């Protein structure tokens, strides 16, 4: 993804920040600078495409993500994510 795409959110892991069933507008990863606190769409090797909040970038350049809801997969269970797996930054939310 190099431009802007729209995705539909399934699940409650980002509630209340992004309600289930909402649509999100994502700007391609090549056009954004990664910043903790921002929301990103990325490809997880085990869980597939996820939308989560970037919580930390460690000294090795690994990205650590978190959900906004207690029902989300934990940061530890997701593990570190490499920057090349980031698909885009969520720039706009259209709530369902």
From TrEMBL:
<dbReference type="InterPro" id="IPR015927">
    <property type="entry name" value="Peptidase_S24_S26A/B/C"/>
</dbReference>
<dbReference type="InterPro" id="IPR036286">
    <property type="entry name" value="LexA/Signal_pep-like_sf"/>
</dbReference>
<dbReference type="Pfam" id="PF00717">
    <property type="entry name" value="Peptidase_S24"/>
</dbReference>
<feature type="domain" description="Peptidase S24/S26A/S26B/S26C">
    <location>
        <begin position="6"/>
        <end position="90"/>
    </location>
</feature>
<protein>
    <recommendedName>
        <fullName>Peptidase S24/S26A/S26B/S26C domain-containing protein</fullName>
    </recommendedName>
</protein>
């Amino acid at each position: 993804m190099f431009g802007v795409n729209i995705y539909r959110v399934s699940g409650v892991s980002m509630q209340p920040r992004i309600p289930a069933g909402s649509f999100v507008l994502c700007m391609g990863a090549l056009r954004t600078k990664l910043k903790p606190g921002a929301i990103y769409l990325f490809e997880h090797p085990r869980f597939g495409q996820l939308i989560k909040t970037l919580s930390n970038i460690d000294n090795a350049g690994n990205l650590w993500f978190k959900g906004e809801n207690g029902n989300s997969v934990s940061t530890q269970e997701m593990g570190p994510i490499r920057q090349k797996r980031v698909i885009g930054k969520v720039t706009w939310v259209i709530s369902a």
